[in-house]
Amino acid sequence: MTTQETRAETRSPGLMFPTGFVWGAATSAYQIEGAVAADGRGTSVWDTFVNQPGHVVGGENADVAIDHYNRYREDVRLMAGLGLTAYRFSVSWPRIQPDGAGAVNAKGLDFYKRLVDELLAHGVDPWLTLYHWDLPQALEDAGGWPERDTASRFADFAALVHDELGDRVTNWSTVNEPWCAAFLGYASGEHAPGRREPAAAIRAAHHLNLAHGLSTQAMRAQRADSLIGGCVNLYAISPATGSEADRDAARRIDGLQNRFFLDALLKGAYPEDVLADLRAVTDTDFIQDGDLALIGAPLDTLLVNYYSRFTVSGAPGGARSAAAAPTDSGSPWVGSERVGFVNGGRPVTAMGWEIDDSGLYEILTRLARDYPSVPLVISENGAAFDDELTADGRVHDQERLAYIDAHLRTCHAAIEAGVPLRGYFAWSLMDNFEWAWGYGKRFGLVYVDYPTQRRVLKDSALWYAEAARHGGLPGAAE
């Protein structure tokens, strides 16, 4: 750590969280590792996507990212210094299985063994995500997620990784944000592989869900003590007015964004109204007998990524996702392309995402009310702002600090209301490659000076460290 990374002023906790509450931060492999050609790693769809003109702001790529592949020991020491009790990270499928099937790349797998050992040695619990969007290009060449076989290949990959690391990693997540992988990747083309095929996106969404079910089955056959969860990105959805058209728009977007995945994971069924919306685009005969039973097998944990609220209108408005890239793209809202997204008048982050912690409370209490009881974890929550390293060598990101504070207070209120919330992971641990936005959007608790790769704790990191150490939100200065 640098001399600027001094410990924040000790504060007494104002709100205490339950004993054992997980205080973590999260990253993903492609956004931080770099070393895209090192030690036998194969090519991913994102490697291909970023090297095509117009896909990423400024033509940037993740060839180096923040060089975590070579600096992981330094980064783990940083986590331990922050008092994190857990670290959520993903493994790179093409680093471990370059072609998405067949032979294992031992050097790639060894990297994750070293990372897990380093985390455990520093008292940080590893939470492993198996898929955060970096599909091996060889599998995309064979059709990608619209092809059912990709789900089977993923189950094989999950079993391989779980067999090697299951003795040291307890908490496992299968597919991160399947909505993004399906509809940003195959409908709008904003994300890799950049396809604009609405019918293919629907098949991809189901096969990503199926990949969760098949991989869960495979891992549970190996070990009974692993805790396995699915991970969804959820939004609170509000109609712009009380009109019938706006209420139907809210139903449609809630259906495709939230219920399509929640009902499959937690009820073993797809919502009939959502299927009816999607049948206007394609038939659903790719959903085979037994699929939903696999997908809906009981979970140990539901991981929830939350960032913002959508306000929607039935009036045409050129629908775009909250994560829309600043490039020409199609709509990710398959079957509901004419739904409009309305500015709700709230403050926004540097991504243009409205800040609304009340939406998180709405999501958490809805899960506890409407779905079978399952332990919940906030696996991503955070905000991008225009951070600057100031003359005093610090990053005074008070907006991010306030964002995290507000959302943690909402988590505490949800726990008080009976929601089985077990932990919180800030997104992200460090500034990194922000997909189609390149390096211009900073989400990190830790500032990364990209030319030098120097890490500097932001004010939000120092504040979060105090919360993690004391198990509660800071109150008045002592």
TrEMBL record:
<keyword id="KW-0326">Glycosidase</keyword>
<comment type="similarity">
    <text>Belongs to the glycosyl hydrolase 1 family.</text>
</comment>
<keyword id="KW-0378">Hydrolase</keyword>
<dbReference type="InterPro" id="IPR017736">
    <property type="entry name" value="Glyco_hydro_1_beta-glucosidase"/>
</dbReference>
<dbReference type="GO" id="GO:0008422">
    <property type="term" value="F:beta-glucosidase activity"/>
</dbReference>
<dbReference type="InterPro" id="IPR018120">
    <property type="entry name" value="Glyco_hydro_1_AS"/>
</dbReference>
<feature type="active site" description="Nucleophile">
    <location>
        <position position="380"/>
    </location>
</feature>
<dbReference type="InterPro" id="IPR001360">
    <property type="entry name" value="Glyco_hydro_1"/>
</dbReference>
<dbReference type="Pfam" id="PF00232">
    <property type="entry name" value="Glyco_hydro_1"/>
</dbReference>
<protein>
    <recommendedName>
        <fullName>Beta-glucosidase</fullName>
        <ecNumber>3.2.1.21</ecNumber>
    </recommendedName>
</protein>
<keyword id="KW-0136">Cellulose degradation</keyword>
<keyword id="KW-0119">Carbohydrate metabolism</keyword>
<keyword id="KW-0624">Polysaccharide degradation</keyword>
<dbReference type="InterPro" id="IPR033132">
    <property type="entry name" value="GH_1_N_CS"/>
</dbReference>
<dbReference type="InterPro" id="IPR017853">
    <property type="entry name" value="GH"/>
</dbReference>
